[in-house]
Write the structure tokens for this entry.
Amino acid sequence: MRIAVLGTGRIGRMHADNLVQHADTELAMVYDVDRASAEAVAERHSVRAAASAEEVFAASEVDAVLVATATPTHADYIEAAVAAGKPVLCEKPIDLSLARVNETARRIAGADVPIQIGFNRRFDPGHAKARAPAHAGEIGDIHQVVITSRDPEMPPRAYYEAAGGLLRDMTIHDFDLARFMLPEEPAHVFASASRLIDPALMSELGDHDTAMIVMTTASGRQCCINNSRTAVYGYDQRVEILGTTGMLVSDNVRADNVRRHGKDETEAGSPYLYFFIERYRQAFFAELDAFVAAVREGRPTSPGFEDGRLALVLAEAAYRSLAERRAVAVEEIT
Amino acid sequence: MRIAVLGTGRIGRMHADNLVQHADTELAMVYDVDRASAEAVAERHSVRAAASAEEVFAASEVDAVLVATATPTHADYIEAAVAAGKPVLCEKPIDLSLARVNETARRIAGADVPIQIGFNRRFDPGHAKARAPAHAGEIGDIHQVVITSRDPEMPPRAYYEAAGGLLRDMTIHDFDLARFMLPEEPAHVFASASRLIDPALMSELGDHDTAMIVMTTASGRQCCINNSRTAVYGYDQRVEILGTTGMLVSDNVRADNVRRHGKDETEAGSPYLYFFIERYRQAFFAELDAFVAAVREGRPTSPGFEDGRLALVLAEAAYRSLAERRAVAVEEIT
Amino acid sequence: MRIAVLGTGRIGRMHADNLVQHADTELAMVYDVDRASAEAVAERHSVRAAASAEEVFAASEVDAVLVATATPTHADYIEAAVAAGKPVLCEKPIDLSLARVNETARRIAGADVPIQIGFNRRFDPGHAKARAPAHAGEIGDIHQVVITSRDPEMPPRAYYEAAGGLLRDMTIHDFDLARFMLPEEPAHVFASASRLIDPALMSELGDHDTAMIVMTTASGRQCCINNSRTAVYGYDQRVEILGTTGMLVSDNVRADNVRRHGKDETEAGSPYLYFFIERYRQAFFAELDAFVAAVREGRPTSPGFEDGRLALVLAEAAYRSLAERRAVAVEEIT
Amino acid sequence: MRIAVLGTGRIGRMHADNLVQHADTELAMVYDVDRASAEAVAERHSVRAAASAEEVFAASEVDAVLVATATPTHADYIEAAVAAGKPVLCEKPIDLSLARVNETARRIAGADVPIQIGFNRRFDPGHAKARAPAHAGEIGDIHQVVITSRDPEMPPRAYYEAAGGLLRDMTIHDFDLARFMLPEEPAHVFASASRLIDPALMSELGDHDTAMIVMTTASGRQCCINNSRTAVYGYDQRVEILGTTGMLVSDNVRADNVRRHGKDETEAGSPYLYFFIERYRQAFFAELDAFVAAVREGRPTSPGFEDGRLALVLAEAAYRSLAERRAVAVEEIT
């Protein structure tokens, strides 16, 4: 499958590399508003840098598109891909505005073009291998899910300015993961968010760097999410699923399994893998596998557009909870 | 120090055993409303079974009392101990009614008799060893505390009828632990509680078997508590402290360090220690050590009466949060 | 059971404490060639310090004896205990001379007095819990046993002068453990020993501080022992049993389960428990349990005199292997 | 660098895949005595299948060769590569006959063509990351190395017939790893080998399936190797380095970090990665990196021809030890 990459920033470049390495895909062409960036990537992989996004959608030698551009373009490009009949794998979030996402939903309703949203964590070998037996009943009925998700360090100021706030930018992955792990949809959301790491910057931007969220389902199942922008020991990515007959934990990952023993410590491991590109490397590949296989075999892509929309609904509920210091019913958000 | 034990149920008997084994204490006498129970314990340790609680408080050969009776008697016995000038180590909770606790607080105000509340977990070697460096600044500023606290199995129906509800009975230990681990007092409490393990019984009794609580301090520090009445893999007791320069985790405990490897698994450990008597055995001894040392050296006992009261305040705030589905300010509770 | 303790050095004092704390035993009296030492322990436990070992063996209020004196007295005291008809729990080794041990064996042959040798490690909860399923066939046929046994630090010079050499003093525990873990007796022994930690002292004393031993059984099962006098990370005591359908590992033990995470490390644990008194505390109690129960119920004590003798036979074989740089058949040693 | 692969069996195919994926290498052509096998691989990667090995060595479009053919051809092909002036990365062992290896050594003496032997384990991230600090003095002086190396299951009979015996085929990796980990060369070798897994087949073939080896250096440093052909819990590959101020352990590797907890077990992990292709995937890539970089930069390749020879010398010493049941001095082997 010949796939074009829109957006050649850090994530776009990683996807371009993966498309080249993947046995079943080819990098068809690349595009970026920053022409120089696109051309550098194009040259590196001996492909063409398109002059515009339109050119990509119109190109007959492009079978599908991978959208890794700035968030405000995602909805437009999804719509363009659908119009062009090209399957699309789009990075999260679909948009920072739920109204905009709902509008896209209306516009693409009824279209039969595969859309997959880049919730890469669903494809992590550990997370996937914890979920499968849990959903197959191996730990009985699922009662609690605990998601720990902490970035290794604060991104630069410019990042925050475009990101849309901690809960829409970072926690959105965890909202999706919560939906993936729970056997039923979250019905209520309570959010708490703080400015602890860089209170001055966070206050100035109206953003947060630390959060705890509790979600409950209609039957009372619970999910807790713990977020922080700074875990100096590495990207902290854990999922714990408690059931009536057992518990499954998908634990952190290191680059090696060396353990140090000394006068003051035993079994000290290396720091966890630094960040998402390292930690979720296999997940990004598996995500691509799933996209290609679903498109080829005419099966529904997953996570799909509605999954992207529902994660944003949970983020909106969380922001309302934050403002009103109460548990917000998901159905309040429309 | 000659210490009398009031209450010879499961916990009282454990304390009696500990007093006998402890190098610095003697079991002075025992008392229980169930005379036969008291006499069995008295005989086992070759001490006297008092005919009444009053007899214990009046006895000159009793230097201090350990209260392990039913909850509704705790406040009375604390008041009696204070009146008798005998230092008292009283099991939690002081009372299920905050009004009653406040009344006792007024009655004993100004008295100089040491009172210690049996929040044994503060004395667990792991929890204590995680807290000390955290409070000494070794992981920088403390941002998040995550407490996992799950019982191995549901207690019998009769237990629930007297216990006062999940948040007052079980979570109260975690409310105290949260206060112990956080560098400032919780200011807001949000609670979510469910009926998942035995919904019929829990509904009938108006109780819950599963809970998640989020507390925040004035500066935005956060603490999450995860509770369940059933963790089939053993008593799940973990504390995680995230700071700006590191994380400290006090992990679960097993009876042995055997690891099994087979066709389908590697490094499989034994189940965690079954319940509090096994898991917190060292903690109960250390609690006694601290009580005896504080009394002898005239230092303040800790955790004290006010710690017992504040844990109950948090439980009350949690119940109000549950009823009103909102974060409750601790100062609302009086 | 009223048990007298002969020898009030470090191990003797520990045993005296255990006898006092154990529910089924009483410390009957103590004896030591160093009268002051014996009297200090006697006073601490409010018992009598005997004027001579003979007095102990003759005392009607002594039901059994626990021998923790210097090694050269062990064989004599075992013989005296047998003559007096008093069951004896004797610290290892029986003697440093196999000829002397064999002589005692002849002298006590046919006597019906229970003798147990203090190979405490057999009673460690982890080691015992690894062995039981292995011997019950849960990991199929046992092929390899790997014993890691490293002391935390070098003992003082005086210790070496009486100890009889690394393989008779320290490895003897591992020789016994190997016999306990293997399903058949070792038939050949190959030993390698070095002077690496304090080469000057070891050369002067003709002793070693580091060793690796390989033993094989008649059917070819193998056991490897790794010894060192210095493991700065704590007393390193591991046993690994490899079978055809699995592996069981009895791993090291810490005082707490705290794990530290920081910029340069994750999951760093506390050092392992410092030395045998801490690490094998439960084992020493369980050893006492087993002795008391066997004597009371008239069952054979285990490990018995012959186990003590056979461990020394392996040590002798190891020394011959060292001298001749070859695998020595156990049957060569008589 | 354009590299040809000689031998398109399991390992050759893996190397061909790696050459295609590696950013700095190209698969130049392939060759195998089994023409169909070579053509299948050639077709898969769109390269040419050479008609003979000679054709490969003569081809101007081949910059270097990777030898993954049957063992008896290795020495010839190394000689041919040297004659052709093409750098060569050759799978272990160089030959099963030390005489043949020595002959090749004489023949290529003085030639300046880079030769690297495929001791892939040196490049494992864990093993490498344990060795580096150990050799940099972070754990003081190195005293003991313990290598556990167990295959997941018995290879087919045909494999044994060509492999040259357990110690030359399997342990040779560990002999090299021992040399890599120890700070000085092994001086004495003691080997013990058994027929426990399939005694009938092993006896018929004169081979072994289980081994323990102890090696010592001139100064008394020790290394123990534990081998088995069957570890049902996965490919067991561990290295432990004990120094005077600490211990470094390179532990086993799993496909994911999921931990299961249930009624009878806690923290049960997935089986270890099945075998060398999975376990040492990163190592094979890093080996290639090192080869390419050394050749390009004109630095010595490592491990080189002499490393391949010395590993075989240790295997020969081990076989002599086995035959004579004694520690064999490495200098006895010529």
Q: What stands out?
A: Residues 2-113 of chain B form a domain with the Rossmann fold fold (CATH 3.40.50.720).
